Amino acid sequence: MTLHVDLTRVLKENSRTFFIPIARLPARLQETVASAYLCMRAIDEIEDHPGLDDSKKAALLHGLGPILQAKIGVGSAHSDLAELDFFFSPYHAILPEVTLRIGDWLLNVPTDIAPRVWDATIAMAERMAYWVDNHWQIQTEADLDGYTFSVAGAVGLLICDIWSWFDGTAIDRMCAIQFGRGLQAVNILRNRKEDTERGINFFPAGWTDKEMFQYARKNLDLARAGVASMPKSSFKYFVEIPLLLAEGTLKAIENGVGKLSREQVLQIVGTVT
What we know:
Strand content: under 5%
CATH superfamily of the largest domain: Farnesyl Diphosphate Synthase
Order of helices and strands: HHHHHHHHHHHHHH
CATH topology of the largest domain: Farnesyl Diphosphate Synthase
CATH class of the largest domain: Mainly Alpha
Shape: globular
Structural class: mainly alpha
Radius of gyration: 18 Å
CATH architecture of the largest domain: Orthogonal Bundle
Number of strands: 0
Helix content: over 70%
Number of helices: 14
Distance between the termini: 29 Å
């Protein structure tokens, strides 16, 4: 019960977009998706951390994968957590709770889908290490496609597998990739100022906001077409809500507001049954 409470709290602290649809899922699916999301967020927090230089980020990301590979399906929960705690010990004062407790989130996943979530977490760490090692060099749209797949499109594929595991629903996997890419492009536009201040530019050479808006819309539109063709499942809202919030955020950025108000978020959520 304590872990469930912590899971819900940490999820709410780390994602306004996904907390609402995840909280509506059936209990077992909710726990699984929330745990998987927090694993991905744990990795992302290392990649984005303003207090770590690139060498420390790369060392953490490269080092996490081998530990998890050795622990998948073996050992006790206590030994798994102890080794991860030791691994993170030099950074306890600066890494956020969502990262320091990645072992809790991994061990909370049901055993029959756990290997897929662990594998996705290992792959995410290696992909993020690649981008850190290469200083997020994005020169072309192909580079941007690679980055947005690494950080978000691949998460969409994981959700497809979790959904299929839960009730057999088959989701358009290309739609899931486009969904992730579109959401990440919106994040890039929203965080443009902060990224620039830390010396990172996710815009391909020669791109302005105009091209990035077009990229975001293209992927969101493709994702919307895929969502429209999804089976009429009671869980369709899980992707409809983030998609609508991303589209609303894109409009807010265009209008110079930057983000949706709480009232606008609730209004958008209220349109999805």
